[in-house]
Input
Amino acid sequence: MAKKIKIIVAKPGLDGHDRGAKLLARIFAEEGMEVVYTGLRQTPEMIVAAAEQEDADVVGLSSLSGVHNYFFPRVVELLKDKGLNDVLVVGGGIIPVEDYDFLQKSGVKAIFGPGTPTMEIVNFIKSNARAR
Amino acid sequence: MKRDYAKEILAGSPQAVARLISWLEDEDERAYSIMEELYPHTGRAYVIGITGSPGAGKSTLTDKLIRIMRKGGLTVGVVAVDPSSPFTGGALLGDRIRMSDHSTDPEVYIRSMATRGFLGGMAKATCDVVKVLDAFGKDIIIIETVGVGQDEVDIVGLADTTCVVLVPGLGDVIQSMKAGVMEIADVYVVNKADRDGADQLNMEVNARIEQDIHIKMSGWVPPVNKTIAVDNVGMQDLWESILKHRAFLEESGRLVEKRRKQTYQETLRMIHNELFRLIRDQLSEDGRLDRLVEEILERKRDPYSTMREILSEWLDSTPKYKEAL
Ligand code: B12
Ligand SMILES: Nc1nc2c(ncn2[C@@H]2O[C@H](COP(=O)(O)OP(=O)(O)OP(=O)(O)O)[C@@H](O)[C@H]2O)c(=O)[nH]1
Ligand SMILES: [Mg+2]
Output
């Protein structure tokens, strides 16, 4: 049986904009991935627990309310605390380009803003997800 | 250093459990020696199946049941199955959304699974995953099947108590479900009782049970529980019904009987699968299978004698394949 990429798509914090996250969840599934959508209002702890139990290869975070600088690094940190160092973390939503550098330094491997061709996102994930 | 997954799992590592489950889903060879080590530690958990049509409220019911079980000090494992797309092979696994409240409870382990083309309402590896969670020490294991139609009833081969979830407003439910799903209920749940038609449905289910009493004579009459899962209404009664069924199975000796049947089926199925895999791989290796198919298509040979030929050949050459085991 061929291995599938397992990806968690999560909305951290109180941000209620879920159109982008749901759209991507669907796109990832259509690209053959197994996608766990966690729903809204997730704490970093919830997201990381889900990643651990689901043996996720990728965690995708979506934020449109300006809280990315807190939540994204926190998720990376909690993953590290659990020893889940090889989980690929990517993010998207409304994120000012000025923040990209900080986020990438804190371990978010890539940020995709509005208008990114979705195949670019898919290809990045496919070529950077771990083997298990 | 090589990791000892079985040991880690028995010591309570969720990450070791998670990886083993992935390997089982992938049918990765690494999984099976670990399963051999875990098997002696299984058989302790009580397994509850939740099945019913798509969107009936299976995940929401599971969420609320977990809450009751946790209050009672029980640890819980959940296997939530959703369908893979037959076209893309991908899957959207959405059951977990409804169980968010428990995601950081270390005594609750929730795992989503895609069917990966397996029919019957579950994934091929679901029965193995149940064993993993059993060995992991969970007291109760809940299996949520995919939304089922009529004959996806594999859950009976795995669950001790099967709950069939019905909802009002789906037309003549009983009629449409008569073939399979209605026959497997140990406990009925009429969910979304806040909706019109719940009483009507309740009556129809009771009428059906009434008939079943005359036909089946099984000693167990499935109770019907009305619930409004989203509002946490009727959940305690549902839990009591499950407990009663468990007590019935245990006191009547049926639990042992049920598990004997399940083990019988499972053992046969495992032998079947592995034999099939060995022969298929061997036949496919050098393109022989394709050639045989062509010859059968052209009516140069028939599939019946071909099958016997292949089997007898295979039996003659078995020592060669013994190493593969
Ligand atoms: C639709 C919308 C809403 C809808 C949301 C509906 C819903 N269920 O999603 C409603 C009307 C409810 C709403 C409400 C609000 N909104 Co509004 N909303 C928007 C709007 C117009 C479009 C967002 C959208 O759906 N885009 C379409 C999707 C497909 O795009 P996307 O999410 O960006 O996703 C793409 C990429 O970002 C990326 N991506 C996204 N997530 C992820 C995740 C991963 C893993 C990856 C790899 C990629 C990725 O890929 C996607 C495809 O390219 C934006 C403005 C804008 N142009 O973005 C404002 C906007 C996001 N909203 C805004 C605000 C302020 C609000 C409100 C707080 C207040 C208000 N004025 O109403 C409320 C708060 C709601 C809440 N509880 O959080 C601001 C946010 C400002 C900020 N960040 O500082 C924006 C930017 C408008 C603005 N210019 O002021 N909103
Ligand atoms: N009105 C009403 N809605 C409910 C009730 N229980 C669940 N729902 C809603 O029904 C929808 C489906 O619920 P789920 O629990 O996801 O159903 P499911 O059977 O797990 O769905 P699948 O796994 O997709 O087959 C959700 O929007 C729930 O909020 C109920 O008792 N009453
Ligand atoms: Mg569900």
